Amino acid sequence: MSKKKKAVSVGGIFLVGVLAGSALMYNNSVYHSVSAAFGQGAAKNSVAQAGGDLSGSDLEAALQAVQNSRANALEDQSRE
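Below the sequence we write its predicted structure tokens.
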């Protein structure tokens, strides 16, 4: 594949993604869902549910707390 074809392909995929994202954001329910997720700090809520505290910990500890919470949830689901 030539460099020109690759550049046009990547540009086209980017443009389609931007147009699709824009169309989704014009949908009120999608817009409100996305803004609510980002507005409430989805990552911070996940860490809080995992029992972690972001105030005095570093990013690695926060990610570990989220991963432990996910692993525990999957183990609970598999037991059921």
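Residues 52 and 65 are 6 Å apart (CA to CA).
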